[in-house]
Amino acid sequence: MEPIVVAKNLSKSYTKGLRALDNVSLTVNQGKVLVVMGPSGSGKSTLIRTFNGLETFDRGELNILGIKIDSTHDERKIQKIRRRVGMVFQQFNLFPHLSILENITLAPVHVQKRRQAEAEEYGMYLLNQMGIDSHAKKYPSQLSGGEQQRVAIARALALKPELLLFDEPTSALDPERINEVLDAMRKLARQGMTMVVVTHEIGFAKDVSDQVLFMDSGKVIETSPPNIFFSNARHERSRKFLNQLDKQ
Q: Residues in domain ABC transporter (predicted)?
């Protein structure tokens, strides 16, 4: 399996000595799904945001799709990575003044210089895959939160990424809308999309992940296959976290 992400000894500190990342190492192979879990403030979001250059790091080395970056944060390399890596955030970040289809075709046309007709055809294909092609001419305010997040996923896919990052994609949704987004992500996993997903959704992690990485205080506490992590986690801190999730 070809590694898509290789992180070696990543460290990042904020003021007052707070370590967001503390010597983090991991590998994500092509076609695999890594789920990142951990309590609030454990460094999960900071970690995956380094994978497309939204966060810098102080020490260590990162190899994304064969492009090596270090603490110098070479902007040319970051731009190369961003052309090949998609990201879906907690908030949908759709342009409210653009239609759903216009939101999806904006980057392919202006960044990748694709023809408008080609971008629209592929955009409609993606909306169909997400089950929301009937909303193509609507505006974000006319859609539910779950529908907007599926548009955000389609927008990320419109650039035909080789790696897709999800930063707690269901945390801003009403409970009844969560499954429609998770089902869309499950479909991507079945199609072989390489994904790194920060989430607290245990059912999704059990179904889809190849590995679960558990973080606390900027450190990787445990990396295990889902069948081990959720039934017999190796580390006491992991077990305590899962017990707290079960009580929610």
A: 5-242
